[in-house]
Amino acid sequence: KGVTGIVSWHPDRLARNSVDGGRVIYLLDQGIIQHLKFPTFWFENTPQGRFFLSMAFSQAKYYVDSLSENVARGMSQKAKRGEFPGKANFGYLNDRNTKKVVINPETAPAIKMALIRFSKNEFSVNTLAEWLHRHGVVNHSGNKLWLSQTHRLLTNPFYYGAFYWKGELYPVNHEPLITKKIYDKNQ
Description:
By secondary structure, this protein is an alpha+beta fold. About 45% of the residues lie in helices and about 10% in strands. The protein contains six helices and six strands; from the N terminus they run βαβαββαααββα. It has helices at about 20-30, 45-80, 110-120, 125-135, 145-155, 180-185, and strands spanning about 5, 35, 90-95, 100-105, 160-165, 170. The chain has a two-stranded parallel sheet. A two-stranded antiparallel sheet has the order 3-4. A two-stranded antiparallel sheet has the order 5-6. A hairpin with a 4-residue loop joins strand 3 (about 90-95) and strand 4 (about 100-105). Helix 1 packs antiparallel against helix 2, helix 3 (about 110-120) packs antiparallel against helix 4 (about 125-135) and helix 3 (about 110-120) packs across helix 6 (about 180-185).
């Protein structure tokens, strides 16, 4: 016959959007699912039970939507303070204690040298990627930087002390690796 019930911690574990919540209610209406058991929420498969279940699904959706809005607001506030609201770029680290972006002593010197040498026309993007790899700069998989990652490194204002967030350029409060003049030459 198949599965006729679901055991879950709370209804918000089953549905955090209106489509998923509607599917569960529909499966209950059709008798495909006959039982839902929650240790933290009372439910009976009756019209009133399905109504309260739909209210729990609506509350879960509201929670997710509010959380998303609050996180976006917090990230924008962080950007306005000059704090990079994301994972640090190559050559930098996210310091978990201070919640700041700091220079990575292992890779920053090589990246700085590479950006300076590129500005003097000593490298193409291909040779720059090779040079960085030989000097220990690898992507998050431990491999040589892709050409797109190398290009992004050259065109990223983060290295002279700025970053884009939601289409707006913000100054940063972390230590830059290069000057704006070197950045402009690399463009």
